[in-house]
Design brief:
The structure holds two protein chains of two kinds. Chain A is an all-alpha fold. Chain A has two domains: 156 residues, Formate dehydrogenase/DMSO reductase fold; 169 residues, no CATH class. The two termini of chain A are 28 Å apart. By secondary structure, chain B is mainly alpha-helical. Chain B has a domain of 171 residues: 3-Layer(aba) Sandwich (Oxidized Rhodanese, domain 1). Helix content of chain B is 52%, strand content 5%. Chain B has 15 helices and seven strands. In chain B, the strands form two sheets. A five-stranded parallel sheet of chain B has the order 3-7-6-4-5. The longest helix of chain B is centred in the first third of the chain and has 28 residues. Classes of the chains: A mainly alpha, B mainly alpha.
């Protein structure tokens, strides 16, 4: 038994190709989602910088949710680190050619921008909290009264969001030893996947309502109903988000197809790597969860919802989120399984 | 190209999951379009107000029935390869009643509850949650009720086979019955319904024109009549032997299963193979491979194994097994294998494996595994140098490998296949 154990787990006998477990895909997913949320809220902040009358439901929720999700993602990343104490060394230097270095600095800059975005609409979105903390409300008011500051925060959101979204893809493609990842298309693919999951998260937020519907006697049923019905007066926003999400999903689907076509038509190693997803051991998960229920079905459902053919629910948003997560898992796992043809003698 | 595609190896397991996804989404979409996501519409049929469930289900049944019949008659489909759920009479009746009670109480069956939940209906979500709780509960109590759940087995049964009536007659009778049910349903909807359902475009519409519905009904009737005179859709009666295909599979050695592989499959409890002992009953009673059943060669008939089974044949030597293999293969395209080397090889390699004289690390590890399998199956591993020609050990004990305490850790619990619901 000992022999069996030793032999099976000796990397010289049976090489362990899967170095990255769940932490990296989870981090890539959450990072992409936050990137998408930042770009979307950046756009909203710039658009509404002179307009204080618009409903500001998510303008505080989304950045605060981003802070929480990004922290979770970075925690996952931290779990993956081999030398956890040495993290600070990343911030002692800046290497222009290293995506890892870009990423660590972007992650550091994202937090203050997110908090500033949340503060910007603090007064309108959380009037009760603002009354309790007049100092914070004062700072928020000062920021709000200067459209230039709002523009700055908006542009910072968009720039950092785009950087974060692209970086999560480029991080993988810089590893040339894995044929599946050696494509720059991963950058835009992850960016648009992040945008679609970000839009889906906002879409879900519009559906979340706290038990206002009292026509159901049972608390459990009432809260379930609350979770799936769009908030009153935000139906228009939900439809716009569904429209935006469909745009992102369409672009993501095209990039994904280009990525696979590009790979299939390249070297033998690239062809084998693409075959892992298209027909190989990851085919079922890829076609069903990424392409089927992650892209095509949400596209159809949201199209039907936008055309008022079916009742709007949070199900397409949920499918998009699951699809985005599975995309990261499939790409990270299949990427680690892909390899260059073995050279004789090794 | 002959269906079923999966059984003829047109695509693998991965692709079959993708196909299942596409079919599942299509099925759900059709149920939703038929209005089956709404519990009120489903319940209305119990009051004869809206009988669309009856109509859609009967329509699905006869479409599948005449479709399968016609396709297998023109040679596109091998009906004997289509999986039939084995009939377990009493448990099926009890289970059916339970499902019906759930249907009446909740307003959904498993398929429609998924449709309803996907369209955002809360009752559907509660129902789906209840279904999963029930599945977990069933899995937990299954060992306790296993003896009940497997009682009165009747095998892969069809009505035509059981009552010994021609298949074509049955197809025709069901088509006529379905058309009658459609007419009766429309009549009931007019009498009990509020006038919203089934008023226009039905079979009973007050016009003499040949409406699309009537054309469809006529088409089904014609297909039913075709079935009445068309004969048996199963190919079993007229089988042409392809000697070259037989020679090819025999020559390539793909028809053999090694004793080690068979032992692994028994230990894992996969029930992948149906093992058949071809020796006389007396020899079988003395010793047989665990889980094997006894069908002496003289008693072997093509219908003693279903074409769904993967059969492993063995006797003392390869000779009789090869004869049995030919009998089975000649009666249709069956998955039949020969235990390589017969029972002698089984004893040599599985029950009494010999430790290599100077094993390397890998060989020692492999032997440890084989020794564990041997002890599990009631044998004894032998030390190096023992002659393999004369086993000194006593005859192996008859054992039934039902989870002994020393089971090697490769054993996996058997997964039960999910039943298909409506």
């Amino acid at each position: 038994m000992t022999e069996l154990f030793t032999l099976k787990h000796n990397p010289l006998v049976d090489p362990a190709m899967h170095i990255w477990a769940w932490q990296i895909p989870v981090y890539l997913f959450l990072g992409g989602l936050v990137a998408g949320l930042m770009i979307l809220s950046g756009y909203h902040i710039i658009r509404d910088r002179y307009d204080t009358d618009r409903p500001h439901g998510h303008y505080v929720t989304a950045p605060m949710l981003s802070v929480a999700l990004l922290s979770l993602g970075m925690l996952a990343l931290f779990f993956d680190l081999e030398h956890k104490i040495e993290v600070w060394r990343l911030y002692m230097t800046f290497e222009v050619t290293s995506p890892m270095s870009w990423g660590s600095w972007i992650l550091l800059l994202v937090y203050p921008v997110l908090i500033a975005s949340a503060l910007l609409n603090f007064q309108e979105a959380q009037p009760r909290l603002a009354a309790r903390y007049p100092t914070v409300a004062g700072v928020a008011e000062a920021m709000r009264s200067r459209p230039g500051v709002a523009s700055l925060i908006g542009f910072a959101n968009i720039a950092l969001g785009a950087g974060l979204g692209i970086y999560t893809g480029i991080l993988l493609s810089s590893l040339a030893a894995r044929p599946l990842w050696s494509s720059a298309l991963l950058g835009p693919l992850f960016l648009f996947s992040g945008l679609s999951t970000g839009a889906a998260t906002l879409h879900m937020l519009t559906h979340i309502e706290k038990g206002e519907d009292n026509s159901y006697g049972d608390f459990l049923v009432a809260s379930m109903v609350g979770w799936i019905r769009p908030k009153h007066g935000e139906h228009e926003g939900a439809v716009k988000l569904a429209h935006a999400d469909n745009g992102f999903l369409t672009i993501e689907l095209s990039i994904l197809m280009l990525f696979l076509i590009n790979l299939s038509g390249s070297s033998a190693a690239g062809h084998d790597a693409a075959a892992l997803l298209l027909t190989g051991p990851y085919a079922a998960v890829f076609w069903v969860f990424v392409v089927g229920s992650g892209l095509v079905i949400p596209l159809i459902l949201q199209g039907l919802q936008a055309a008022n053919r079916i009742r709007p629910t949070m199900i397409p948003a949920l499918l998009v989120l699951v699809g985005g997560l599975v995309l990261r898992f499939v790409l990270v796992y299949a990427g680690q399984a892909s390899h260059w043809p073995r050279i004789a003698g090794f | 190209m002959i269906a079923p595609f999966f059984k003829f190896g047109m695509f693998g397991t991965e692709a079959s999951l993708v196909v299942a996804f596409v079919i599942g989404i299509g099925f759900g979409f059709m149920l939703e379009r038929a209005g089956f996501g709404n519990a009120r519409k489903l319940a209305a049929q119990f009051y004869f107000q809206d009988l669309r469930v009856l109509k859609v289900m009967f329509m699905a049944i006869i479409t599948a029935m005449v479709g399968l019949y016609a396709l297998s008659r023109v040679g596109f489909l091998d009906l004997s390869k289509v999986y039939l759920v084995p009939t377990l009479l009493v448990p099926d009746i009890v289970g059916g009643l339970l499902l019906g009670m759930g249907f009446v109480i909740g307003g959904y069956c498993p398929g429609t509850s998924c449709v309803s939940a996907s369209t955002g209906r809360v009752d559907g979500m509660v129902y789906v949650a209840g279904m999963f709780a029930g599945l977990v509960g069933f899995g937990e109590v299954y060992p306790k009720i296993k003896s009940f759940a497997t009682m009165t087995p009747m095998g892969h049964l069809t009505i035509a086979k059981y009552f010994d009536i021609p298949y074509g007659l049955l197809v025709f009778a069901v088509v006529v019955m379905a058309l009658g049910a459609f007419v009766a349903a429309e009549w009931a909807e007019r009498k009990f319904g509020d006038g919203s359902a089934g008023m226009t475009g039905g079979l009973l519409e007050s016009t003499r024109r040949l409406t699309p519905v009537r054309i469809l009904a006529l088409g089904l009737l014609v297909l039913g009549l075709f079935a009445l005179v068309g004969g048996d859709p199963y190919r079993g009666n007229t089988v042409s032997i392809d000697p070259r295909a037989l020679a090819l599979s025999a020559g390539r050695g793909v028809v053999k299963v090694s004793p080690g592989d068979l032992a692994d499959s028994i230990v894992k409890g996969t029930e992948e193979f149906r093992i058949i002992d071809l020796r006389p009953a007396a020899a079988y009673a003395t010793y047989h491979i665990p889980t094997a059943e006894n069908i002496p060669l003289a008693a072997l008939a093509p219908d003693s194994v279903s074409s769904d089974d993967k059969v492993v044949l063995y006797s003392d030597s390869d000779m009789q097994a090869a004869q049995a293999w030919f009998i089975l293969r000649a009666s249709g395209d069956r998955a039949a294998y020969i235990l390589a080397g017969g029972l002698d090889a089984w004893k040599d390699q599985v029950l009494y494996p010999v430790r290599p004289a100077k094993p390397t690390g890998l060989e020692a590890a492999a032997f440890e595994k084989r020794a564990a399998v041997s002890r599990y199956l009631g044998g004894t591993p032998r030390a190096a140098g023992a002659s393999s020609a004369q086993p000194v050990e006593p005859a192996p004990a008859l054992i039934t490998p039902v989870a002994p305490p020393s089971a090697p850790d490769m054993a996996r619990p058997k997964k039960r296949a999910a039943r298909e619901g409506c």
